[in-house]
Design a protein that fits this description.
Mean pLDDT: 88
Radius of gyration: 16 Å
Strand content: 25-35%
Strand order of the largest sheet: 1-3-2
Structural class: alpha+beta
Largest sheet: 3 strands, antiparallel
Low-confidence stretches: none
Helix content: 10-25%
Order of helices and strands: EHEEHEE
Number of strands: 5
Length: 88
């Protein structure tokens, strides 16, 4: 099997964990991905299968677009959404 899997990665799981789950289902096929999404990020994760792994280096050359939400007026203990609010 060769080609691409387009995975809508949810918040709460790392890109590597997604890749590990796919490896368990597909067995010994060679897999790769075109970039890491933080566990706090959701978005499209491109998984290359078999011979498609040779194309990963080219898939990352295009521009990317990011959307995000920011909340002003509060600070957390970890400077991200996972931390405890320590000041508002």
């Amino acid at each position: 099997m060769h080609g691409w899997l387009l995975v809508d990665k949810p918040v709460g799981i790392s890109s590597n964990a997604v890749l590990s789950k796919i490896k368990r289902h597909l067995g010994k096929l060679k897999l790769g991905h075109t970039g890491t999404l933080d566990p706090l990020a959701s978005g499209l994760l491109l998984i290359a299968v078999g011979e498609a792994t040779k194309l990963c280096q080219y898939a990352v050359l295009d521009d990317k677009t990011y959307e995000f939400t920011i909340t002003f007026g509060s600070a957390t203990s970890t400077d991200d959404a996972e931390g405890e609010i320590i000041n508002t």
